[in-house]
Design goal:
Length: about 450
């Protein structure tokens, strides 16, 4: 693929384009910033699932390590692209939050063997969808994908602002929203904005690291980080495929399959945003091959994760915001990210230090990144002709999608399966956008 000219890169706000090879130091800087943005998100789902299933500490630690290793392998596949497998973009994958409900339900009934076996079987749904993607261009249009990207960003903002207030722990102990928490998050956010607007490319690329590192140090001085809570930093985790055995439940496969179908839609939106931010086309044959390859890899990597005893993977939206903030879209940076993730999985000591980062520090950075994802979705929508039909599709999709995010109790009378599916604003709004785009027909004057 022909590399973008320097003029095109500047026009797109990029320092390094998709196929540029940044020097080692700059590539590592960019990779570390992506790593800081995704580490907690990768290890949180296995921690939540382990707690719900009352797993012992050894099993929990193993699941966390395997999640990191699986994410590293999945990221390498997405960035490198093997034939029709992968996007060839700086596309990061990590453990998905969307599957937590069905996984806990399956694990309660049949243990981890049933969870991983059912996840592997259900992942074929997303792989099949990827092969049919080129026939759905009239259904999943740029307008639909723009709505989905916007909803992804808006939905994630809730996660970011919760972290800024101190997270779920602060909500439980009554300190949520304290000056200490909000001030720390504000410090990180302001520092990132200040350094990101610098004309010095090194300061711009390292803006996230500077913000998070400063926040981490300030939090330590404030006594919010307790290194003594870690009993041991030693040991190496060796992957043991199929460690918990394999089993399959039809009901679990159906439930998980529905989530994989929605994940394919979300992945399409994330890949669209990634392409746009990276200065690549978001229409035409080249883009469709990239998108179908990314969705295929999304499903394949989830199957591979099941083999490694890790939970399903999906494309991470927050890293699209990181590309825009750092100005580095080079897919070669993804190789470094993949390597770091595998190392963190093999050597959990470094990961333990990362895991001590207070939520307000991470929230200050993620809040800004999630906002840039929503902005990317708005850009996609704005690039289309906004006629009466488009206005109705946007209105009903955003209304229903944001409704379940703002007032989740509206679903309280639905069966558990439906409530788990539609509790996500991305799911509700995305499906609404697809259906409304097909059914609403208006003859323009």
């Amino acid at each position: 693929m022909k590399e973008q000219s320097r003029e095109d890169l500047c026009k797109n706000g990029l320092i390094y384009g998709l196929n540029d090879r940044p020097p080692f130091r700059e590539a590592v800087f960019a990779a570390l910033q992506h790593l800081l943005a995704i580490f907690v998100a990768i290890i949180t789902p296995p921690l939540i699932i382990s707690g719900a299933l009352s797993l012992d500490a050894e099993t929990t630690a193993y699941l966390v390590s395997m999640s990191l290793i699986a994410s590293g392998i999945a990221t390498f596949i997405q960035c490198r692209r093997f034939g029709c497998l992968g996007t060839g973009l700086l596309c990061i994958q990590g453990t998905s939050f969307s599957f937590i409900g069905p996984i806990i339900a399956a694990g309660t009934v049949g243990g981890l063997g049933l969870v991983f076996g059912s996840c592997m079987a259900a992942s074929t749904v997303e792989m099949v969808i990827s092969r049919l993607l080129k026939y759905t261009k009239r259904v999943i249009t740029p307008l639909v994908s723009g709505i989905v990207v916007t909803l992804i960003g808006m939905s994630l903002i809730k996660v970011g602002i919760t972290a800024c207030g101190g997270g779920t722990v602060a909500q439980a102990d009554g300190t949520f929203g304290s000056i200490q928490h909000v001030g720390l998050a504000a410090l990180v956010l302001v520092l990132i904005v200040v350094f990101n607007r610098s004309s010095n490319r090194f300061l711009r690329m390292s803006s996230i690291v500077i913000g998070l590192a400063t926040g981490y140090i300030v939090a330590w001085i404030m006594g919010l980080i307790d290194f003594s809570s870690i009993q041991s930093y030693g040991g190496i985790t060796i992957p043991h495929p199929f460690r918990f055995g394999l089993d399959i439940s039809l009901s679990a496969v159906i439930s998980l399959g529905l989530i994989f179908m929605i994940t394919a839609i979300e992945a399409f939106g994330d890949i669209t945003a990634n392409s746009l931010i990276s200065g690549e086309t978001v229409e035409g044959e080249t883009f469709m091959k990239r998108a179908s390859g990314g969705i295929l890899a999304d499903g394949f990597n989830s199957m591979l994760s099941g083999m490694l005893c890790a939970f399903p993977n999906s494309v991470f939206a927050q890293n699209n915001g990181m590309i825009q903030l750092t100005g580095v879209a080079s897919r070669y940076v993804g190789y470094y990210i993949a390597g770091f993730l595998v190392l963190l999985g093999l050597f959990p000591a470094v990961g333990l230090v990362f895991s001590l980062m207070p939520e307000p520090v991470l929230g200050g950075a993620t809040l800004l990144m999630f906002g840039t994802v929503a902005a990317a979705g708005i850009r996609i929508i704005a690039s289309q002709t906004i006629n009466r039909k488009a206005t109705l599709v946007i209105a009903i999709s955003l209304s229903l999608g944001l409704s379940v995010e703002l007032v989740p109790d509206i679903l309280c009378q639905l069966p558990d399966t439906l409530r788990n599916i539609f509790s996500s604003g991305i799911t509700t709004g995305g499906l609404t956008a697809i259906i409304a785009n097909v059914l609403i027909q208006i003859k323009e004057d």
